[in-house]
Amino acid sequence: MPGMPPLAASGKRLLARIIDVIIVLIPAGLLDWAAGGVHGDDWTAGRSAIGGIFTAGLGFLYEWYMTKSTGQTVGKKLMGIRAATLSDGSVPSTNAAAARAAILWLPAFCCSCFWFLIIGITVLFDRPYKQGVHEKAARTVVVTAV
After folding, report:
1. What is the pTM of this model?
2. Distance CA 28, CA 12 (A)
3. What is the DSSP string of 52-97?
4. Count of C-beta atoms within a 10 Å radius of residue 126
């Protein structure tokens, strides 16, 4: 769109998402362990339903708050990109940030790997704005931070 910064590169978006997932998974895993979802040192069995709730909840809160505040999560800041409203490039509104975060993180409760794969595929093949499902719903795009 005229006056909008260029769309973010796919590689930067992927690295930003990996950083953000790690930021969410560390406290979610610790909370899961503390709540008894992981038994002893057995981390091989996967996460529990409690861990899924922690992951989805923390992921939602993290993404929503950071996006509505500045358009940037920690991962996006490190990669020099940001979320922007499609219509004018502004920081997404509270409601847009909530829709974006909900569609991105709430399915992580039950099918996180599969869901993040779907998100990645939609970003790779969407034209012209490279929007994931969560971005289409919120009417946002990811652009370079200026």
Report:
1. 0.89
2. 24
3. HHHHHHHHHHHHHHHHHHTS--HHHHHHTEEEEETTT-PPPPHHHH
4. 15
What are the residues facing 142 on neighbouring strands?
83
Largest CA distance in the chain: 56
Q: Are 16 and 132 in contact (CB under 8 A)?
A: no
Phi, psi of 84 (to 5 degrees): -140, 150
d(CA 49, CA 99): 23
Residue 144: what are its φ and ψ, rounded to 5°? -70, 145
Instruction: Name the one residue in this structure whose structure tokens are 């490039």.
Output: 89
The distance in angstroms from the start CA to the end CA of the chain is 15
Q: Where are the domains of the chain?
A: 10-38+47-144
Residue 123 · residue 132 · CB < 8 Å: yes
pLDDT per position as a tens digit, 8-44: 999 999 999 999 999 999 999 888 888 876 555 555 4
127 φ/ψ sector (left φ>0, alpha ψ -120 to 50, else beta): beta
